[in-house]
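Listing S7. Sequence submitted for prediction.
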Amino acid sequence: MRYRLLGRTGLRVSELFLGAMTYREATPEVRRVFDLYAESGGNVVDTASMYGDSEDVVGELLQGRRDRFVLATKYTPTRDRTDLNAAGNHRKNLVLSLERSLRRLRTDYIDLLWVHVWDRHTPIEETMRALDDVVRSGKVLYVGISDAPAWVVSRADTLAEWRGWTPFAGLQVPYSLLRRDIERELLPMARALGISVAAWGVLAHGVLSGRYAAPGAPAGRVSPESISERDRAGVRVVLEVAGELGVTAAQLAIAWALRRGVHPILGTSGAEQLKDDLGACDLARELPEEAMRRLESAVEFDLGFPGDFVGAADRSPDIYGDALPLLDGR
């Protein structure tokens, strides 16, 4: 396992994150997963206030080794469906959600607190100031945001910069070879602002692992009948390339995401599956560019406006003149 810096901070985070969304109790298998991840050099564990008993389980697993891990959790979803103020990104819900997470996780600080989803009912100024306050209190060290438009994240980051508040260090979004929406706005924004990107769904709910490719494959998180021909075509190429390279389809799909510069979140509850997934780290450093091109050309993806328009303008002498090819740099 190798490491990257989290956003514009000095915090070292492993290239693969461990997702704890499905943890309901600290079973022997869950402990094996956790230990294998740690022994492989992984140091980021990601959970959330709304993931049932996950925070309690993670708190138990971290006992005696808490400070060796970057512990990440999220707030926003409701703590009480009958109370409007028990949900959202406002100060009251942040404070109460954080206190509950600290108790569940058996810790006195959170390394990375994510805003779970953009709350359009709360001014972003209130959210950013409240987040800065919990950082200054020492209960949170870094902050990030999940599932929000690029303009919201960039505005929030600019407000933080101008007012001396804590900026977002991370962005958490869905991303896979079959779902590349973030390449339109979110990924370019994160790169420009120096924000790390954590990606969930890199295996597209198991579709990219090839588990549904065989005729008569049983349903899992996905019904085989619901998989589109577009996605099936992508899976076929993933299986072809994986076979040629002598790796599994899951390793290849995760390695592709790693090569795109994101941190895949591995949501596995089995040690054998995790052991296989971890092989993506070495594969990502060896993956040929030709294989990347084959994978990306297998699945139709339209960048859309303004990305495609601006991209064409960047290469146009009508916009920048005949000497454009002589320009080096950005």
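Caption to Listing S7: primary sequence and predicted structure tokens for the chain studied. Strands lie at 3-5, 12-14, 17-19, 44-46, 70-75, 110-115, 140-146, 168-174, 196-200, 263-266. The radius of gyration is 21 Å.
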